[in-house]
Amino acid sequence: MNLAFSDEQNELRRTVRDFLDKNSPETEVRRLMETSEGYDPDVWHQLAAELGIAGLALPEEYGGAGCGFVELGIVLEEAGRALLCAPLLSTVVLAASTLLELGDAGACADYLPGIADGTTLATLALTESTGRWDDPHAITCAASPSPSAGSGSGSGGWTVSGRKSFVPDGQTAALLLVVARTDAGLSVFAVAADAPGVRREPRATLDQTRRQADLTFTAAPARLIGTDGAAWPALERVLDLAAIAVATEQVGAASRVLDMAVDYAKTRVQFGRPIGAFQAIKHKLADLHLAVESARSAAYHGLWAAAESPLELPAAASLAKACCGDAFVTAATENIQVHGGIGFTWEHPAHLYLKRAHSSRQLFGNAAQHRQRLAQVLLAELPA
């Protein structure tokens, strides 16, 4: 296992950071938080079409760059650092990975080129009222054959009915990959967001930088993706990739708030000295540095497993999500404490990171759930 980045990967990081420093400053994040879309289409077009970020990890045959999850992880880390408001996680990680993992060549040829060039926004609609990502038994949304639904990429002889909750970017995605139950088991269906029988409701969230929606389907025309009833093993891998993606975002954001705290401790003077000179602040920041760097190692190990070691992916994903989620929440909380009174104000960016920390810790399973899963995975590997 090699966790060192190549010169090309370091250059990718520099390019993405420069772009986000220019196009996703705090003022722009706050502006987008108040818009109905929650992102800037022009910035997304530049990221996808000009920088090639949307297709970075997609195969060249579908218009991608043919890179791997490590390169995508670099982008995600920088996006977390900048609190980027964009459909990066929903479209590039969830939707694109679902299409690839299901192995439906026709669906990949139809949908992935649009994702790669940024013209298609997509998401995965999996969770329902329980909010659980890891429980296939909680899925009640149903699909049934309907020959009268017609044929083609928009309606492939099926209809979907039911309700999905907590769908990332569900209010703006044009392509909805809906997990529904058929007589054969769990399957994934492509549903056009503007199809008849689809209703979308934006969901009020703590973290306004990442939008969610509730979706209602009433006999909506749908296209089966992959094999009927055989979707869950592929979805489990997609969720592992998504957990690693969020963990990498969390590391980028945690590193940013640590930098904010250190910079403030150097400049804020109290009793004639910078507050960073006081032992209590030194110890606090040293502990934060250790937590963030430990989380970074877990996230990078997860990226390596996603790219190179499928057998280690479940354990690596749960380790990364648990470690990075806790580190980000701790860093965001202590950042406010270091800043004192100003850290509690709306005008200061500290609360933006704190909200992202708490919301992302719940996304794709919280730390306790992933620690329990990690223990189960490791116990299963022990000799009898």
UniProtKB/TrEMBL annotation:
Its cofactor is FAD. One of its GO terms (molecular function) is acyl-CoA dehydrogenase activity. Residues 232-378 form the Acyl-CoA dehydrogenase/oxidase C-terminal domain. Coiled coil: none annotated. It comes from the Bacteria. Residues 142-204 form the Acyl-CoA oxidase/dehydrogenase middle domain. Belongs to the acyl-CoA dehydrogenase family. This is Acyl-CoA dehydrogenase. It comes from Parafrankia irregularis. The lineage of its organism: Bacteria, Bacillati, Actinomycetota, Actinomycetes, Frankiales.
